[in-house]
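<given_protein>
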Amino acid sequence: MKKLLLLAVVALTIMAGCTKANPVYKVGVGSVTTIQPRAATAEVVGRIRVNTTFATVVLDKDGKFVSVEIDVSQQDGTFDAAGAIVAATAAKTKKEKGAEYGMKAQSKIGKEWDEQVKALEAWMVGKTLAEVKALPLVDGYVKDGEDLKSSVTITVTDYMAAVEKAVANAVELQNVVKVGGASFTTLSGRAAVAETAGRIQANVVFSAVAIDKDGKVVKVMIDNAQNQGTFDVAGAIVAAAPAGTKKEKGDAYGMKGATTIGKEWYEQMAALETWMTGKTLTEIKAIPTYEKDATHKFVPSGDDLKSSVTITVEDYLKSLEKAFAAAKDLAAK
């Protein structure tokens, strides 16, 4: 009996040691988008502003945040009162801009946007989603009297919503030592003509990657927030409503009927993510591709992917590379 008890204690000790050395994490990514349109006049250019907020989260076995990373891809495309494009060039994210964003001088607490969002992220760490959502807000701002108010005076509604989505999308993983999240954005413009509305379109590809001790992918999650606003030849707004991401649209995205392999975007992305799993960034970047046409230049050509992925992968690889570069060691959290 004593021998059995001893063996049981040893087994439990080994299991506890393994759990401590190799904890289970939940990792997820999510986004929310808003669009702010402005019609053109003789004095002021029109504008379509697309704000895509994305969050990458890591939670422990108790559902508490180990890491939270929030960023915003804020993109402006402009047009004149004749419906011609004035400017449509992709900009850095708010975190990437850092001091260039220019909030510090206007802030009552003298803090830049990236400083304030980092304070919000730090405040979330160690809390559950329920505790985070319990933060008292007034019109999207932290309520006066709260400790966080001294370091966060920006509106946080979209940040909270992106974090909540990321938690809903989170999956359990082991053997993870680093997690990173990042985005890559392209912005395009089309002038209005009599028959066709002009358009500003932002494509925000965002990625979260979980990496093991050997630098190999344990899990990668990639999505694309594709949003647009349209205007007419007089510079008036025609439409400007945010849409779900390509993964959120699912079958409604409508790619299946237009592809030679009969697979929807989310199915092709799932195949690409699976292919990336177990590989290093170097191995992933070495993916063989070919130029199908002027629009589809980086289509996988390898025998292991060409039957399941016919989408262009260039922007997804750029986003993933940035996520690798942004990855942080969870042991340091």
Q: What stands out?
A: DSSP finds nine helices and 14 strands in the chain. The first strand starts at residue 25 and ends at 38.
